[in-house]
Amino acid sequence: MKLTKTVLIAKTMTLADLPLNTLARILSTQLPPDLTQRLAALGLHVERDIEVIRRGFLGGPLQLRVASTDFMLRREDARQILVDILPQADSNLIAVAV
């Protein structure tokens, strides 16, 4: 009998933990006001959909996509952004056999 391990992925997580190519909605941020303002100019704000396209090597920055804008964000800043996986993307991520 082969044993499998099931890994559950939470629906709400930080942006740094979001799996690649998974659409999520921004719930809140705990970033400094100056960075919040710069990111808002790029389209990153509460209630906006976001996706992690690529992760930098050895803890490097994340490449993010908001609407048609791609940009990089440090992981330590991404840990301050809370996101919720969108329902249509949720069905593929509930459980993964390892």
UniProtKB/TrEMBL annotation:
SMART domains: FeoA. The keyword Chloroplast does not apply. It comes from the Bacteria. Residues 13-85 form the Ferrous iron transporter FeoA-like domain. It holds the Pfam family FeoA. InterPro entries: Fe-transptr_FeoA-like (IPR007167), FeoA (IPR052713), FeoA_core_dom (IPR038157), Transcriptional_repressor_C (IPR008988). Keywords: Iron. PANTHER family: FE(2+) TRANSPORT PROTEIN A. This is Ferrous iron transport protein A. It comes from Iodobacter violaceini.
